[in-house]
Amino acid sequence: MGESSTVPALRHGLALLRQLSRLGQPAPASALAAELGLPRSTTYHLLAELERAGLVVHLPEEQRYGLGVGVYELGAAYTKQAPLARLARPLLTGLVDSTGHSAHLAVLHGREVLYLVEERARGGPSLVTDVGVRLPAQLTASGRALLAGLPAAQVRALFPDASAFVRRHGLGPRRPADLRALLVDVRRRGYAVEDGEVTPGFASVAVPATDHTGHPVAAVASTFDQARVGEASWPGLAERVAAAAGELARRIGGAPHPRW
């Protein structure tokens, strides 16, 4: 079989897997075909091939198809290889070189952010945002950038009432209404900021990197001494952070989030 026939088939097969992933539940072949604009015969053929590969499972009683155990195995292998951190590290190094400030990569973990990578500026101070550290998401620039990219219902589920808010140094949002207003400002501005709420005297700006669905996967952030970097310089710094986040999104097959 030549390249002219295998490449479209591969693309259509990947489209089927992505559609099943987006749906979050098994679906009839006819619905998948209609959603993707594929002939039913082609869809059944591709699903049969994916089933043989273990990437799709057929549920005969329900007349539906779902993701197979092979997808889980691929996901587990992805996690073991830690490619997100590997892809981000050289971008963070470049960000540090261009700005002179420390940079880090964080992911959302419930109501917290987990720091995966930190690149410290030469001669820069040790920061609380070290690898493996978790901090309240609503207090950090990285967490705010990630929360701003989530659907409102998901944010409400994470922060339903005042008891969900952990405070530090007496600063930060105290209740859901405070967080909603803060996230509106993040979306309007196009980047998130944190001003002394994690460590007094230090501020951060952050931008999310998104996957192919627009979901925020991780946040790239730059942290700096407030005494050295005036607030007027933050938008310019945020542009450099956004460039690094955008390149990370491109490397993982992502696209700009529609809310940004």
Give the strand order, joined by hyphens, for the main sheet: 5-4-3-8-7-6
Order of helices and strands: HHHEEHHEEEHHHEEEH
Task: Give me the secondary-structure category.
Answer: alpha+beta
How many alpha or pi helices? Answer: 9
Distance between termini? 43 Å
The overall pLDDT, averaged over residues, is 88
CATH architecture term of the largest domain: 2-Layer Sandwich
Please state roughly what percent of the residues sit in beta strands, choosing from under 5%, 5-15%, 15-25%, 25-35%, 35-45% or over 45%. Answer: 15-25%
- Unreliable stretches (pLDDT < 50, length at least 5) are none
Q: Roughly how much helix do the residues carry, as a percent range?
A: 40-55%
CATH superfamily of the largest domain: GAF domain
> What characterizes the major β-sheet?
6 strands, antiparallel
Gyration radius, rounded: 21 Å
Number of domains: 2
Shape: elongated
Main CATH class of the largest domain:
Alpha Beta
Q: Which fold does the CATH topology of the largest domain refer to?
A: Beta-Lactamase
Number of strands: 8
